[in-house]
Amino acid sequence: MTERIKPLGRCLAIDTATSAMTVAILDDGNMLGERSSHAERNHSIGLLPHIQELLTSLELKPKDLQSVAVGQGPGSYTGVRIAVSVAKTFAWSLGLDLIGVSSLEAMALGGAVRDRQTNEDAIGLTWVVPLMDGRRRQAFTAVYAYEGSSPLTAGGELAVHWHEVLPDGIRVITSWTEQLLALITAAGAGQAPKEVIFVGETEGFTAELTQFAQDGQVPVRMLPYSIEAEFIGRLAYPRLADGEKAEVHTFVPNYTRLPEAEANLLALAQKGEK
Prior knowledge:
Layout: E1 10-15, E2 20-27, E3 30-38, H1 43-57, E4 67-71, H2 77-94, E5 97-101, H3 103-118, E6 125-135, E7 138-147, E8 163-172, H4 173-191, E9 195-200, H5 206-215, E10 220-224, H6 229-241, H7 260-273
Parallel strand pairs: 1-4, 4-5, 6-9, 9-10
Antiparallel strand pairs: 1-2, 2-3, 6-7, 7-8
Protein backbone atom coordinates (compact mmCIF):
# COMPACT_ATOMS: atom_id res chain seq x y z
CA MET A 1 0.00 0.00 0.00
CA THR A 2 0.92 3.67 -0.31
CA GLU A 3 3.24 4.86 2.47
CA ARG A 4 1.46 7.68 4.21
CA ILE A 5 3.45 10.82 4.94
CA LYS A 6 0.75 12.36 7.13
CA PRO A 7 -2.66 11.35 8.43
CA LEU A 8 -5.44 11.80 5.90
CA GLY A 9 -8.04 12.73 8.49
CA ARG A 10 -11.76 12.15 8.48
CA CYS A 11 -13.54 11.17 5.28
CA LEU A 12 -17.29 11.29 4.72
CA ALA A 13 -18.27 8.42 2.39
CA ILE A 14 -21.62 8.42 0.55
CA ASP A 15 -23.45 6.15 -1.89
CA THR A 16 -27.02 6.21 -3.25
CA ALA A 17 -26.51 4.32 -6.53
CA THR A 18 -28.99 1.60 -5.53
CA SER A 19 -31.96 1.31 -3.18
CA ALA A 20 -29.44 1.45 -0.32
CA MET A 21 -28.75 4.93 1.05
CA THR A 22 -25.52 4.63 2.98
CA VAL A 23 -23.12 7.09 4.65
CA ALA A 24 -20.03 6.48 6.75
CA ILE A 25 -17.22 8.42 8.37
CA LEU A 26 -13.71 7.02 8.53
CA ASP A 27 -10.71 8.54 10.27
CA ASP A 28 -7.45 7.81 8.47
CA GLY A 29 -8.98 4.57 7.23
CA ASN A 30 -10.53 3.50 10.53
CA MET A 31 -14.33 3.19 10.64
CA LEU A 32 -16.00 5.59 13.07
CA GLY A 33 -19.62 4.95 12.16
CA GLU A 34 -22.14 4.24 9.43
CA ARG A 35 -25.85 4.81 8.69
CA SER A 36 -27.68 2.80 6.01
CA SER A 37 -31.32 2.40 4.97
CA HIS A 38 -33.34 1.15 2.00
CA ALA A 39 -35.79 3.57 0.41
CA GLU A 40 -34.81 4.37 -3.18
CA ARG A 41 -37.44 7.03 -3.75
CA ASN A 42 -36.54 8.90 -0.57
CA HIS A 43 -32.82 9.40 -1.18
CA SER A 44 -33.25 13.09 -1.94
CA ILE A 45 -35.15 13.59 1.32
CA GLY A 46 -33.16 11.31 3.59
CA LEU A 47 -29.51 11.73 2.63
CA LEU A 48 -28.72 14.99 4.45
CA PRO A 49 -30.55 13.89 7.65
CA HIS A 50 -28.58 10.61 7.54
CA ILE A 51 -25.32 12.56 7.36
CA GLN A 52 -26.36 14.92 10.16
CA GLU A 53 -27.46 12.03 12.39
CA LEU A 54 -24.13 10.29 11.84
CA LEU A 55 -22.11 13.42 12.59
CA THR A 56 -24.15 14.07 15.73
CA SER A 57 -23.76 10.49 16.97
CA LEU A 58 -19.98 10.85 16.64
CA GLU A 59 -19.98 14.32 18.23
CA LEU A 60 -18.57 15.81 15.02
CA LYS A 61 -19.40 18.84 12.91
CA PRO A 62 -19.02 19.19 9.14
CA LYS A 63 -15.95 21.37 9.69
CA ASP A 64 -14.23 18.35 11.31
CA LEU A 65 -14.11 16.55 7.94
CA GLN A 66 -11.11 16.65 5.60
CA SER A 67 -12.48 14.83 2.54
CA VAL A 68 -15.61 13.40 0.96
CA ALA A 69 -15.75 10.21 -1.13
CA VAL A 70 -18.80 9.41 -3.20
CA GLY A 71 -20.07 6.47 -5.18
CA GLN A 72 -19.90 7.89 -8.68
CA GLY A 73 -22.03 5.15 -10.22
CA PRO A 74 -23.01 3.39 -12.29
CA GLY A 75 -26.49 2.64 -11.01
CA SER A 76 -29.78 4.44 -10.63
CA TYR A 77 -29.62 7.67 -12.64
CA THR A 78 -31.46 9.71 -10.02
CA GLY A 79 -29.74 8.01 -7.11
CA VAL A 80 -26.21 8.57 -8.40
CA ARG A 81 -26.98 12.21 -9.15
CA ILE A 82 -28.22 12.82 -5.59
CA ALA A 83 -25.08 11.49 -3.92
CA VAL A 84 -22.76 13.32 -6.32
CA SER A 85 -24.63 16.62 -5.84
CA VAL A 86 -24.44 16.37 -2.05
CA ALA A 87 -20.76 15.39 -2.13
CA LYS A 88 -19.91 18.32 -4.41
CA THR A 89 -21.80 20.70 -2.13
CA PHE A 90 -19.87 19.50 0.93
CA ALA A 91 -16.56 19.68 -0.92
CA TRP A 92 -17.16 23.17 -2.31
CA SER A 93 -18.69 24.75 0.80
CA LEU A 94 -16.21 23.27 3.29
CA GLY A 95 -13.10 23.15 1.12
CA LEU A 96 -12.84 19.35 1.34
CA ASP A 97 -10.95 17.05 -1.00
CA LEU A 98 -13.42 15.24 -3.28
CA ILE A 99 -12.93 11.83 -4.81
CA GLY A 100 -15.23 9.57 -6.83
CA VAL A 101 -15.31 5.81 -6.38
CA SER A 102 -16.96 3.17 -8.55
CA SER A 103 -20.17 2.07 -6.85
CA LEU A 104 -19.72 -1.34 -8.48
CA GLU A 105 -16.22 -1.69 -7.08
CA ALA A 106 -17.49 -0.79 -3.61
CA MET A 107 -20.22 -3.41 -3.99
CA ALA A 108 -17.63 -5.98 -5.07
CA LEU A 109 -15.22 -5.17 -2.25
CA GLY A 110 -17.86 -5.12 0.46
CA GLY A 111 -19.45 -8.31 -0.83
CA ALA A 112 -16.08 -10.06 -0.90
CA VAL A 113 -15.30 -9.00 2.67
CA ARG A 114 -18.70 -10.16 3.95
CA ASP A 115 -18.36 -13.43 2.04
CA ARG A 116 -15.03 -14.13 3.70
CA GLN A 117 -16.60 -13.74 7.12
CA THR A 118 -18.44 -17.03 6.51
CA ASN A 119 -16.06 -18.66 3.99
CA GLU A 120 -12.60 -18.24 5.46
CA ASP A 121 -10.56 -20.72 3.42
CA ALA A 122 -7.95 -19.06 1.20
CA ILE A 123 -7.93 -20.95 -2.08
CA GLY A 124 -6.11 -18.61 -4.47
CA LEU A 125 -7.53 -16.24 -7.07
CA THR A 126 -11.16 -15.22 -6.53
CA TRP A 127 -13.27 -13.31 -9.03
CA VAL A 128 -15.94 -11.03 -7.59
CA VAL A 129 -18.75 -10.04 -9.96
CA PRO A 130 -21.02 -7.22 -8.68
CA LEU A 131 -24.53 -7.00 -10.12
CA MET A 132 -26.99 -4.11 -10.13
CA ASP A 133 -30.28 -4.66 -11.90
CA GLY A 134 -30.34 -2.53 -15.04
CA ARG A 135 -33.81 -3.76 -16.09
CA ARG A 136 -34.69 -5.59 -19.32
CA ARG A 137 -32.40 -8.51 -18.35
CA GLN A 138 -29.42 -6.17 -18.17
CA ALA A 139 -27.03 -5.62 -15.29
CA PHE A 140 -24.53 -2.97 -14.31
CA THR A 141 -21.56 -5.20 -13.68
CA ALA A 142 -17.78 -5.72 -13.77
CA VAL A 143 -15.21 -8.20 -12.53
CA TYR A 144 -12.75 -7.60 -9.69
CA ALA A 145 -10.31 -10.06 -8.19
CA TYR A 146 -8.09 -10.76 -5.23
CA GLU A 147 -5.90 -13.56 -3.91
CA GLY A 148 -5.72 -15.11 -0.48
CA SER A 149 -8.01 -14.90 2.51
CA SER A 150 -9.28 -11.33 2.14
CA PRO A 151 -9.23 -8.28 -0.15
CA LEU A 152 -8.27 -6.21 2.92
CA THR A 153 -5.15 -6.31 5.05
CA ALA A 154 -5.30 -7.16 8.75
CA GLY A 155 -5.33 -3.40 9.38
CA GLY A 156 -8.36 -2.86 7.15
CA GLU A 157 -6.52 -1.31 4.22
CA LEU A 158 -7.10 -2.32 0.61
CA ALA A 159 -4.78 -5.22 -0.22
CA VAL A 160 -2.30 -4.70 -3.04
CA HIS A 161 -3.59 -7.75 -4.91
CA TRP A 162 -7.13 -6.33 -5.28
CA HIS A 163 -7.57 -5.40 -8.95
CA GLU A 164 -9.99 -4.88 -11.82
CA VAL A 165 -10.34 -7.69 -14.36
CA LEU A 166 -13.11 -6.23 -16.54
CA PRO A 167 -14.33 -2.62 -16.27
CA ASP A 168 -17.73 -1.30 -15.20
CA GLY A 169 -20.44 -1.46 -17.83
CA ILE A 170 -24.00 -2.48 -18.54
CA ARG A 171 -24.40 -5.91 -20.11
CA VAL A 172 -27.18 -8.29 -21.09
CA ILE A 173 -26.96 -10.93 -18.39
CA THR A 174 -27.07 -14.02 -20.66
CA SER A 175 -24.27 -12.86 -22.94
CA TRP A 176 -22.35 -11.60 -19.89
CA THR A 177 -22.30 -15.00 -18.19
CA GLU A 178 -21.32 -16.60 -21.50
CA GLN A 179 -18.43 -14.13 -21.78
CA LEU A 180 -17.27 -14.97 -18.26
CA LEU A 181 -17.33 -18.70 -19.01
CA ALA A 182 -15.28 -18.13 -22.15
CA LEU A 183 -12.72 -16.03 -20.26
CA ILE A 184 -12.31 -18.68 -17.57
CA THR A 185 -11.84 -21.39 -20.18
CA ALA A 186 -9.33 -19.32 -22.15
CA ALA A 187 -7.34 -18.41 -19.03
CA GLY A 188 -6.29 -21.97 -18.39
CA ALA A 189 -5.47 -23.64 -15.10
CA GLY A 190 -2.68 -21.25 -14.13
CA GLN A 191 -4.60 -17.97 -14.45
CA ALA A 192 -8.25 -18.93 -14.10
CA PRO A 193 -10.04 -18.06 -10.85
CA LYS A 194 -10.42 -20.76 -8.23
CA GLU A 195 -13.92 -19.51 -7.47
CA VAL A 196 -16.42 -16.88 -8.66
CA ILE A 197 -18.65 -14.90 -6.31
CA PHE A 198 -21.64 -12.95 -7.63
CA VAL A 199 -22.60 -10.20 -5.17
CA GLY A 200 -25.25 -7.50 -5.03
CA GLU A 201 -28.69 -7.65 -6.63
CA THR A 202 -28.39 -11.31 -7.49
CA GLU A 203 -32.02 -12.30 -6.87
CA GLY A 204 -33.24 -11.04 -10.24
CA PHE A 205 -30.70 -13.15 -12.11
CA THR A 206 -31.06 -16.47 -10.29
CA ALA A 207 -31.79 -18.53 -13.42
CA GLU A 208 -28.81 -17.21 -15.36
CA LEU A 209 -26.43 -17.51 -12.42
CA THR A 210 -27.60 -21.05 -11.66
CA GLN A 211 -26.97 -22.01 -15.28
CA PHE A 212 -23.52 -20.38 -15.09
CA ALA A 213 -22.74 -22.46 -12.00
CA GLN A 214 -23.83 -25.64 -13.78
CA ASP A 215 -21.81 -24.86 -16.91
CA GLY A 216 -18.74 -23.52 -15.14
CA GLN A 217 -15.53 -25.23 -14.18
CA VAL A 218 -15.06 -23.49 -10.81
CA PRO A 219 -17.12 -23.19 -7.61
CA VAL A 220 -19.73 -20.41 -7.74
CA ARG A 221 -21.44 -18.56 -4.88
CA MET A 222 -24.21 -15.96 -4.91
CA LEU A 223 -24.41 -13.36 -2.15
CA PRO A 224 -27.27 -10.83 -2.03
CA TYR A 225 -25.56 -7.68 -0.78
CA SER A 226 -26.23 -3.94 -0.43
CA ILE A 227 -23.48 -1.36 -0.76
CA GLU A 228 -21.99 -0.13 2.51
CA ALA A 229 -20.39 3.33 2.53
CA GLU A 230 -17.51 1.93 4.58
CA PHE A 231 -16.14 0.40 1.40
CA ILE A 232 -16.51 3.64 -0.57
CA GLY A 233 -14.17 5.09 2.03
CA ARG A 234 -11.76 2.16 2.03
CA LEU A 235 -11.38 2.45 -1.75
CA ALA A 236 -10.89 6.21 -1.50
CA TYR A 237 -8.06 6.30 1.05
CA PRO A 238 -5.23 4.83 -1.09
CA ARG A 239 -6.04 7.34 -3.82
CA LEU A 240 -6.24 10.22 -1.37
CA ALA A 241 -2.85 9.10 -0.03
CA ASP A 242 -1.49 9.40 -3.58
CA GLY A 243 -2.72 13.00 -3.71
CA GLU A 244 -5.60 12.24 -6.08
CA LYS A 245 -8.71 14.40 -5.93
CA ALA A 246 -11.44 15.51 -8.30
CA GLU A 247 -12.09 19.02 -9.56
CA VAL A 248 -15.36 19.93 -7.84
CA HIS A 249 -16.98 21.93 -10.65
CA THR A 250 -16.30 19.42 -13.43
CA PHE A 251 -16.95 16.25 -11.43
CA VAL A 252 -19.92 14.29 -12.84
CA PRO A 253 -21.58 10.91 -12.21
CA ASN A 254 -20.73 7.81 -14.22
CA TYR A 255 -24.12 6.92 -15.66
CA THR A 256 -22.68 4.25 -18.05
CA ARG A 257 -25.68 4.83 -20.33
CA LEU A 258 -28.19 7.55 -21.05
CA PRO A 259 -31.09 7.66 -18.62
CA GLU A 260 -34.14 5.99 -20.16
CA ALA A 261 -36.04 9.23 -20.74
CA GLU A 262 -33.12 10.78 -22.62
CA ALA A 263 -32.55 7.59 -24.61
CA ASN A 264 -36.20 7.57 -25.68
CA LEU A 265 -36.06 11.22 -26.72
CA LEU A 266 -32.88 10.60 -28.69
CA ALA A 267 -34.44 7.61 -30.43
CA LEU A 268 -37.51 9.68 -31.36
CA ALA A 269 -35.33 12.50 -32.66
CA GLN A 270 -33.27 10.11 -34.79
CA LYS A 271 -36.45 8.51 -36.11
CA GLY A 272 -37.81 11.92 -37.09
CA GLU A 273 -34.67 12.72 -39.04
CA LYS A 274 -35.12 9.70 -41.32
